[in-house]
């Protein structure tokens, strides 16, 4: 077994607010950044051998760590394990690839179908885990296959159908790690693809609070309703707990308005859920993952 503290890039006692888009959370015991599957397996083997808790993250765009931090190892793919290539209308990409960069790669090669993902701030791996989507598109619409590292150390290729994609979910659970995927797109007109991406960018800029740290849409869409409308109708636009706020611009977003703590964020989420449930009988389910 290799010495991961010699072979793999890492930081100790690392502030997790630097690794999440909400910019909250205490420190992690270690944050490791493996550059390939060999290093990833070595870190996981170390964790198992030493009974160390671990979690794999990408850009941290859908995760909130608690203020007391994470007593274990965070394995981060962002900007590493991020190779990509194109074969015809198939993009092959590693889990650490940023979605917006892949969308631009598709555009530059006149491939359409990924425009919806051009403004999603996460990595490919994280987007696959939760079947991320926006503006009528979802990852399941473009995934051909996903290569996954299983808990036993083997790598298995799953087809789109085997991924069992649903609304903000997939087959990927705690014992599985997305390594790479194939994205099946189709030939299109580059100028039309670019125009569509620009249109979606303008929509996001005008409607979403991109100027503040957030985890994107905070709540899943309840069946038959829209979370943002329920929250707005409950009179919660601009509602604050400490430094956390329901965005006045888009009530589906909880933002870090003024040096919020994780506790501020969680208390606000709890308040919103309770108030909406009391008023409308709908219990909102958080889309963001809370890591305790």
Could you explain how this protein is built, in words?
This protein has 292 residues and is of the alpha+beta class. It folds into 3 domains: 4-76, Uridine Diphospho-n-acetylenolpyruvylglucosamine Reductase, domain 2, CATH 3.30.43.10; 84-192, Uridine Diphospho-n-acetylenolpyruvylglucosamine Reductase, domain 3 (2-Layer Sandwich); 209-291, Alpha-Beta Complex (Uridine Diphospho-n-acetylenolpyruvylglucosamine Reductase, domain 1), CATH 3.90.78.10. It contains 7 helices and 19 strands. The protein has helices spanning 4-7, 37-49, 99-108, 124-129, 190-207, 227-233, 262-280, and strands at 9-15, 27-33, 54-57, 63-65, 70-76, 84-87, 90-94, 111-112, 133-134, 137-138, 143-149, 155-159, 177-184, 186-187, 214-217, 240-241, 244-246, 253-256, 289-291. The strands form 6 sheets. The chain has a 5-stranded antiparallel sheet. It has a 4-stranded mixed sheet with strand order 1-2-5-3. It is globular. The mean pLDDT is 96.
């Amino acid at each position: 077994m290799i010495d991961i503290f010699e072979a793999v890039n890492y930081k100790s006692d690392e502030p997790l607010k630097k690794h999440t888009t909400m910019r909250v959370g205490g420190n992690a015991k270690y944050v490791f950044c493996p550059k390939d599957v060999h290093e990833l397996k070595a870190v996981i083997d170390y964790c198992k051998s030493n009974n160390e808790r671990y979690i794999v993250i990408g850009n941290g765009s859908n995760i909130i760590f608690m203020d007391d931090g994470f007593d274990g190892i965070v394995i981060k793919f962002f900007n590493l394990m991020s190779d990509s290539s194109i074969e015809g209308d198939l993009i092959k990409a590693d889990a650490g690839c940023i979605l917006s960069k892949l969308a631009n790669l598709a555009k530059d090669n006149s491939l359409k179908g990924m425009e919806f993902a051009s403004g999603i701030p996460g990595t490919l791996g994280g987007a696959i885990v939760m079947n991320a989507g926006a503006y009528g598109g979802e990852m399941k619409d473009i995934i051909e296959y996903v290569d996954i590292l299983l808990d036993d150390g083997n790598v298995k290729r799953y087809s789109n159908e085997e991924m069992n994609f649903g609304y903000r979910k997939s087959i990927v659970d705690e014992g599985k790690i997305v390594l790479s995927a194939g994205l099946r797109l189709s030939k299109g007109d580059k100028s039309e693809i670019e125009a569509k991406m620009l249109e979606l960018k303008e929509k996001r800029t005008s409607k979403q609070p991109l100027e503040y740290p957030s985890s994107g849409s905070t709540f899943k869409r309840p069946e038959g309703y829209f979370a943002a409308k329920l929250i707005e109708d409950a009179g919660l636009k601009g509602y604050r707990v400490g430094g956390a706020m329901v965005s006045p611009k888009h009530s589906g977003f909880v933002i870090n308005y003024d040096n919020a703590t994780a506790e501020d964020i969680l208390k606000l989420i709890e308040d919103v859920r309770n108030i909406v449930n009391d008023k409308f009988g709908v219990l909102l389910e958080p889309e963001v993952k809370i890591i305790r």
